[in-house]
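Researcher: Let's do a round of design. I'm pasting the C-alpha coordinates now; please hold your answer until I've finished.
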Protein backbone atom coordinates (compact mmCIF):
# COMPACT_ATOMS: atom_id res chain seq x y z
CA UNK A 1 0.00 0.00 0.00
CA UNK A 2 1.29 3.41 -0.94
CA UNK A 3 0.78 6.18 1.58
CA UNK A 4 0.24 9.72 0.34
CA UNK A 5 1.18 12.11 3.13
CA UNK A 6 -0.53 15.50 3.08
CA UNK A 7 0.01 18.28 5.58
CA UNK A 8 -2.27 21.01 6.82
CA UNK A 9 -1.74 23.95 9.14
CA UNK A 10 -4.21 26.29 10.78
CA UNK A 11 -3.43 28.85 8.05
CA UNK A 12 -5.07 26.47 5.53
CA UNK A 13 -8.44 26.81 7.26
CA UNK A 14 -10.68 29.70 6.23
CA UNK A 15 -13.40 29.09 8.79
CA UNK A 16 -12.60 27.14 11.91
CA UNK A 17 -16.13 26.71 13.27
CA UNK A 18 -16.79 23.12 14.35
CA UNK A 19 -15.55 19.87 12.81
CA UNK A 20 -16.53 20.91 9.25
CA UNK A 21 -13.69 23.27 8.61
CA UNK A 22 -13.66 25.21 5.37
CA UNK A 23 -10.40 24.27 3.67
CA UNK A 24 -8.48 26.76 1.60
CA UNK A 25 -8.99 25.99 -2.10
CA UNK A 26 -5.32 26.58 -2.94
CA UNK A 27 -4.31 23.97 -0.37
CA UNK A 28 -6.82 21.47 -1.77
CA UNK A 29 -5.42 22.12 -5.28
CA UNK A 30 -1.93 21.36 -3.94
CA UNK A 31 -3.22 18.15 -2.37
CA UNK A 32 -4.88 17.12 -5.62
CA UNK A 33 -1.66 17.76 -7.54
CA UNK A 34 0.21 15.56 -5.03
CA UNK A 35 -2.41 12.80 -5.15
CA UNK A 36 -2.69 12.79 -8.95
CA UNK A 37 1.07 12.87 -9.51
CA UNK A 38 1.54 9.99 -7.04
CA UNK A 39 -1.20 7.89 -8.65
CA UNK A 40 0.19 8.71 -12.11
CA UNK A 41 3.69 7.69 -11.03
CA UNK A 42 2.71 4.36 -9.46
CA UNK A 43 -0.36 3.51 -11.55
CA UNK A 44 -4.07 3.41 -10.81
CA UNK A 45 -4.08 -0.34 -10.10
CA UNK A 46 -2.08 0.04 -6.85
CA UNK A 47 -3.64 0.46 -3.41
CA UNK A 48 -3.27 3.85 -1.72
CA UNK A 49 -4.16 5.60 1.48
CA UNK A 50 -4.14 9.30 2.23
CA UNK A 51 -2.80 10.40 5.61
CA UNK A 52 -3.40 14.03 6.48
CA UNK A 53 -1.08 15.34 9.16
CA UNK A 54 -2.66 18.11 11.23
CA UNK A 55 -1.70 20.10 14.34
CA UNK A 56 -3.45 19.22 17.63
CA UNK A 57 -5.92 22.09 17.22
CA UNK A 58 -7.29 20.49 14.03
CA UNK A 59 -7.39 16.88 15.17
CA UNK A 60 -11.21 16.88 14.92
CA UNK A 61 -11.11 17.72 11.23
CA UNK A 62 -13.70 15.52 9.55
CA UNK A 63 -12.41 13.16 6.80
CA UNK A 64 -15.87 13.34 5.18
CA UNK A 65 -15.55 17.09 4.68
CA UNK A 66 -12.15 16.55 3.08
CA UNK A 67 -13.61 13.87 0.82
CA UNK A 68 -16.42 16.24 -0.11
CA UNK A 69 -13.91 18.95 -0.99
CA UNK A 70 -11.88 16.50 -3.11
CA UNK A 71 -15.09 15.40 -4.84
CA UNK A 72 -15.97 19.02 -5.59
CA UNK A 73 -12.60 19.59 -7.22
CA UNK A 74 -12.84 16.20 -8.94
CA UNK A 75 -16.01 17.32 -10.70
CA UNK A 76 -14.40 20.55 -11.88
CA UNK A 77 -11.17 18.94 -13.10
CA UNK A 78 -12.74 15.94 -14.79
CA UNK A 79 -15.19 18.21 -16.61
CA UNK A 80 -12.23 20.21 -17.93
CA UNK A 81 -10.41 17.07 -19.07
CA UNK A 82 -13.53 15.67 -20.74
CA UNK A 83 -13.97 18.98 -22.57
CA UNK A 84 -10.34 18.82 -23.71
CA UNK A 85 -10.97 15.30 -25.02
CA UNK A 86 -14.05 16.52 -26.93
CA UNK A 87 -12.06 19.38 -28.46
CA UNK A 88 -9.32 16.91 -29.38
CA UNK A 89 -11.89 14.64 -31.03
CA UNK A 90 -13.22 17.57 -33.08
CA UNK A 91 -9.68 18.53 -34.07
CA UNK A 92 -8.96 14.91 -35.02
CA UNK A 93 -11.98 14.71 -37.29
CA UNK A 94 -11.14 18.09 -38.84
CA UNK A 95 -7.54 17.03 -39.44
CA UNK A 96 -8.71 13.72 -40.92
CA UNK A 97 -11.13 15.50 -43.25
CA UNK A 98 -8.19 17.46 -44.63
CA UNK A 99 -5.44 14.86 -44.37
CA UNK A 100 -7.18 11.93 -46.08
CA UNK A 101 -8.05 13.81 -49.32
CA UNK A 102 -4.53 15.26 -49.48
CA UNK A 103 -3.02 11.80 -49.01
CA UNK A 104 -5.32 10.33 -51.67
CA UNK A 105 -4.46 13.13 -54.11
CA UNK A 106 -0.72 12.78 -53.48
CA UNK A 107 -0.73 9.00 -53.86
CA UNK A 108 -2.94 9.26 -56.95
CA UNK A 109 -0.47 11.68 -58.55
CA UNK A 110 2.33 9.30 -57.63
CA UNK A 111 0.43 6.41 -59.21
CA UNK A 112 -0.30 8.43 -62.36
CA UNK A 113 3.36 9.39 -62.82
CA UNK A 114 4.38 5.76 -62.39
CA UNK A 115 1.78 4.48 -64.91
CA UNK A 116 2.42 7.08 -67.63
CA UNK A 117 6.08 6.42 -68.17
CA UNK A 118 8.15 3.31 -68.54
CA UNK A 119 11.29 5.27 -67.80
CA UNK A 120 10.83 8.24 -65.53
CA UNK A 121 13.33 11.05 -65.51
CA UNK A 122 14.96 12.55 -62.45
CA UNK A 123 12.35 15.32 -61.99
CA UNK A 124 9.49 12.83 -62.22
CA UNK A 125 11.26 10.54 -59.74
CA UNK A 126 11.68 13.41 -57.25
CA UNK A 127 8.03 14.43 -57.73
CA UNK A 128 6.84 10.83 -57.31
CA UNK A 129 8.82 10.26 -54.11
CA UNK A 130 7.79 13.65 -52.76
CA UNK A 131 4.16 12.69 -53.21
CA UNK A 132 4.69 9.63 -50.98
CA UNK A 133 6.17 11.81 -48.28
CA UNK A 134 3.61 14.59 -48.72
CA UNK A 135 0.71 12.14 -48.54
CA UNK A 136 1.87 10.49 -45.34
CA UNK A 137 2.87 13.77 -43.70
CA UNK A 138 -0.68 15.02 -44.29
CA UNK A 139 -1.85 12.19 -42.02
CA UNK A 140 0.65 12.93 -39.25
CA UNK A 141 -1.50 15.28 -37.17
CA UNK A 142 -4.71 13.21 -37.37
CA UNK A 143 -2.82 10.09 -36.31
CA UNK A 144 -1.04 11.98 -33.52
CA UNK A 145 -4.34 13.36 -32.22
CA UNK A 146 -6.19 10.06 -32.45
CA UNK A 147 -3.50 7.81 -31.06
CA UNK A 148 -1.07 9.69 -28.87
CA UNK A 149 -2.44 12.97 -27.51
CA UNK A 150 -5.40 11.28 -25.82
CA UNK A 151 -3.35 8.91 -23.65
CA UNK A 152 -2.12 11.44 -21.05
CA UNK A 153 -5.62 12.85 -20.60
CA UNK A 154 -7.17 9.40 -20.23
CA UNK A 155 -4.49 8.46 -17.66
CA UNK A 156 -5.23 11.64 -15.75
CA UNK A 157 -8.96 10.83 -15.73
CA UNK A 158 -8.17 7.39 -14.29
CA UNK A 159 -6.03 9.03 -11.62
CA UNK A 160 -8.90 11.35 -10.66
CA UNK A 161 -11.29 8.39 -10.49
CA UNK A 162 -8.83 6.56 -8.24
CA UNK A 163 -8.45 9.63 -6.02
CA UNK A 164 -12.10 9.40 -4.96
CA UNK A 165 -11.69 5.80 -3.82
CA UNK A 166 -8.61 6.32 -1.65
CA UNK A 167 -9.37 6.13 2.09
CA UNK A 168 -8.47 9.21 4.13
CA UNK A 169 -7.22 9.25 7.70
CA UNK A 170 -6.20 12.19 9.84
CA UNK A 171 -3.43 12.10 12.43
CA UNK A 172 -2.02 14.82 14.63
CA UNK A 173 1.60 15.83 14.45
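Researcher: That's everything. Go ahead.
Model: Designed sequence:
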Amino acid sequence: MITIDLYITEKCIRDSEGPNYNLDDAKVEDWIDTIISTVSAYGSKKEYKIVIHVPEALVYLDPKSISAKLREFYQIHTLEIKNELRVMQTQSLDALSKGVPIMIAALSLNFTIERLKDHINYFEFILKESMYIFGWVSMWKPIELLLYDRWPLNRKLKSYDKMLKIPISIISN
